[in-house]
Design brief:
The chain contains 17 helices and 3 strands. By secondary structure, the protein is mostly helical. It has 3 domains: 3-77, no CATH class; 95-256, Citrate Synthase, domain 1; 265-366, Orthogonal Bundle (Cytochrome p450-Terp, domain 2). It has a 3-stranded antiparallel beta sheet. The termini are far apart. The site of s-citryldethia Coenzyme A has 21 residues, from loops. Residues 45, 227-228, 230, 261-263, 265, 295-302, 350, 352, 355-357 line the site of s-citryldethia Coenzyme A.
């Protein structure tokens, strides 16, 4: 078994462990036909709200399962590629070899981008790219791409699907550009012979990745591609439901993903681990965090009340990358100890477990990536899920427009300014 096969075997072992720890019956309530009108019990944050029907993917929160188009995430992580998984999400089926080759060629063809985007990154306020958060720069660049696309305002499903494919390619390129500029180096051109995962790493680091690094990045991109009605996906659907164009849609989704309660948590997990500093400090840090009711980055989830299946894979990958790497081992050992303590206390009390963001940063750090770039990598993957879902909804579009309960006064007199 070579090193890449060993990585795939780790995914298989994670699947076996998950199967032992949870049964695989999907929750009955959210699988099946959807006949409007429906009633559901709602709580703050639209908890419990049903936004739409979908065939794209399903998160089974009580069992800790995730499926894309019916296929279990463990299968896809072990056997698929990000390109193939993106095709599956967008078209609803696994591609034939020819379809996959054509899709890959299309992505490679779209990767080089108009030099205007680089000029914006180099000269505009984002020229201080070091200070501007990379997700802010990424969202700006997507809007610049929209300005450069004379078909941007064509909101047909066909045209917006093509834009999504273009953005799968170009968000990777822009992420690479931002990473290079932040480290004071010039961007490198995409290398069409590389896979998407390898190209993303190459454009960020300037070095062709090893087969193991490429495989690990590919698995991480697969894991982050789609996840139900999460805040950034729902943001994309809400924006697109007004028939705003696909660029405005994705720029808005990037804005939502940036938040620390969402995709921005992966970066903060690393800062927390660095703040803890050593395995010996974990217990004191955790107790202090509990006393101060501090939100533990990388833990908890609106839907998962079991261990996030994606963390079940990213954790062992982080462990694998900590072998022969003392710095990564230091980070990983702290993470493992914190994981154990949180699961033993909050896991029991409040069903709070590690989520996808808890180990991903250690994996990316081991791949030589700066923490500020962790969330753009999340976006470089989630563009596929954002696209698949807003395109699915666009097929039978109806603008999202919920209500609010008005709790203010209703018969107030207007008081002239001299009497206020
Ligand atoms: C992602 O939705 C998705 O699918 C998202 C995502 C995806 O793939 O798109 O999975 C990606 O965003 C993962 C989540 C990344 N964010 C974090 O790791 C930030 C830390 N997590 C929390 O802020 C929180 O768990 C959320 C935001 C993820 C979920 O928040 P909820 O569902 O609104 O839960 P809540 O804040 O109402 O908490 C319920 C209780 C509270 O305690 P009580 O007030 O009832 O006593 O659980 C506690 C919270 O204090 N709690 C936590 C906690 N998460 C919840 N306490 C400490 N640390 C935490 N992380």
């Amino acid at each position: 078994m070579n090193d890449v096969e060993a990585i795939n075997a780790m995914v298989r072992q994670a699947a076996e462990k998950a199967a032992q720890e949870t049964n695989d019956e999907p929750e009955p309530i959210l699988v099946g036909d959807l006949n409007w009108p429906i009633t559901c019990e709602l709580r703050p944050g639209l908890e419990g709200a049903i936004a739409c029907g979908t065939k794209i993917g399903y998160v089974n929160g009580s069992k800790g399962w995730l499926i894309y188009r019916g296929i279990n995430i463990f299968e896809l992580a072990e056997k698929s590629s990000f390109e193939e998984t993106s095709y599956l999400l967008l078209y609803g089926k696994l591609p034939t070899r020819k379809e996959l080759d054509n899709f890959r060629m299309k992505l490679a063809g779209y990767m080089p981008i108009d030099e205007t985007v680089l000029a914006v990154l180099k000269r505009s306020p984002t020229a201080r790219v070091r200070d501007t958060h990379p997700m802010t720069a990424l969202g700006l660049c997507v809007l610049v791409l929209g300005m450069l696309d004379e078909k941007a305002e064509d909101t047909s499903v066909e045209n917006e699907r093509e834009i999504v494919i273009k953005l799968i390619a170009q968000i990777a390129t822009i992420t690479g550009m931002i990473a290079r500029l932040r480290s004071g180096r010039d961007p490198v051109e995409p290398e069409p012979s590389l896979s998407h995962a390898a190209n993303l790493l190459y454009m960020m680091t300037g070095e062709r990745p090893s087969p193991v690094a490429e495989r690990i990045m590919d698995i991480s991109l697969i894991l982050h591609a789609d996840h139900g009605m999460n805040a950034s996906t729902f943001s994309a659907m809400v924006i697109n439901s007004s028939l705003a164009n696909a660029y405005a849609t994705i720029s808005g989704a990037i804005g939502s993903l940036k938040g620390s309660l969402h995709g921005g948590a992966n970066e903060r997990v690393l800062y927390d681990i660095e703040e803890i500093g050593s395995v010996d400090n974990v217990e004191a840090w955790f107790q202090k965090a509990r006393e101060s009711k501090r939100k533990l980055m990388g833990f908890g989830h609106r839907v998962y009340k079991a261990y996030d299946p994606r963390a079940r894979i990213l954790g062992p990958l982080a462990g694998k990358m900590s072998e022969n790497n003392p710095e990564i081992k230091r980070l990983y050992d702290i993470a493992r100890k914190l994981d154990g303590m949180v699961c033993a206390e909050l896991g029991v009390e409040k069903k709070i477990f590690p989520n996808v963001d808890f180990y991903s940063g250690i994996v990316y750090r081991a791949l030589g990536i700066h923490a500020g770039m962790f969330t753009p990598i999340f976006a470089a993957s989630r563009i596929s899920g954002w696209g698949a879902r807003f395109l699915e909804y666009l097929e039978n579009n109806r603008i999202f427009r919920p209500r609010a309960v008005y709790t203010g006064p209703v018969r107030e007199e207007y008081t002239p300014i001299d009497r206020r």
